Automatic annotation (TrEMBL):
Compartments (UniProt record): Endomembrane system
Assigned GO CC terms: endomembrane system; membrane
Record-given protein name: Androgen-induced protein 1-related
Database matches in InterPro entries: ADTRP_AIG1 (IPR006838)
């Protein structure tokens, strides 16, 4: 329960900071305050991505070193944290790679019209959906679903919701967030984002194996050994 409280509180803080910085970025760009726009654009990006990286580090540390804690639906929360952490880590790497290669594209007064904005949309869409699932759906509904199904559901939910946003942007503005999918048909659109969700599921499963989680068989073997010891102790007491 403590783990759940910590994770939800952290998610609320991170999202509040990030959405506030995003709000400042848009307001100051729309009002054409050049100095303020440049300042808030630069520092809102830096601050929120530092928070995102910190969030992924905390979650991965929590999984790697605190996995022995016993909580209800621990498998579901571990898988959900992995989805959020892996998405955050990948998007952070893309963002900072762009910063190193083309800083003018990121820190620009016309940042709303630049191609790297798809990275920013990826951050907010994935993390917002992930937090909503964690805060609302997971504790009340999905705790009965096995870990693999819940993780697959989370990956598909994140990917498809981002696909819906892309489709909406394409219909309203004529251009999607990703330039290379502007010419996709609706069928290819669905295949692409469902495939992305399945790929995220596979990556998360691979991360679980790398982190060497305790297998159910190992737990059963430990319980069997305890039962055998108890039987032996009872027999020895009777003989004595």
């Amino acid at each position: 329960m403590n783990r759940l409280i910590i994770s939800t509180t952290w998610s609320i803080i991170v999202n509040a900071v990030c959405w506030y910085s995003w709000y400042n970025l848009y307001v100051y760009n729309l009002l054409n305050f050049k100095y303020q726009a440049q300042f808030f654009t630069k520092w809102s990006f830096v601050i929120e991505h530092i928070f995102y990286i910190a969030q992924s580090i905390v979650q991965i540390y929590h999984l790697a070193f605190k996995r022995k804690e016993k909580i209800k639906s621990s498998s579901f929360y571990c898988l959900l944290y992995l989805v959020g952490a892996s998405t955050t880590a990948i998007a952070s790497g893309i963002f900072w790679g762009l910063v190193l290669m083309e800083p003018k594209l990121i820190f620009s007064n016309k940042v709303r019209k630049q191609p790297p904005m798809f990275v920013h949309h990826l951050f907010h869409t994935a993390t917002l959906v992930y937090s909503v699932v964690e805060l609302l759906i997971a504790p009340r509904l999905l705790w009965k679903i096995p870990g693999d199904l819940s993780m697959l559901f989370s990956c598909l939910f994140i990917s498809c919701s981002y696909g819906v946003y892309n489709r909406w942007k394409h219909v309203t503005t004529g251009k999607a967030v990703y330039p290379f999918i502007d010419k996709f048909s609706p069928t290819l659109w669905v295949i692409f984002f469902v495939g992305t969700g399945v790929l995220g599921y596979i990556i998360s499963k691979f991360l679980i194996v790398c982190m060497r989680f305790t297998k159910p068989n190992e737990k059963n073997e430990g319980n069997e050994k305890k039962d055998q010891r108890m039987i032996v102790n009872k027999i020895t007491k009777k003989t004595n």
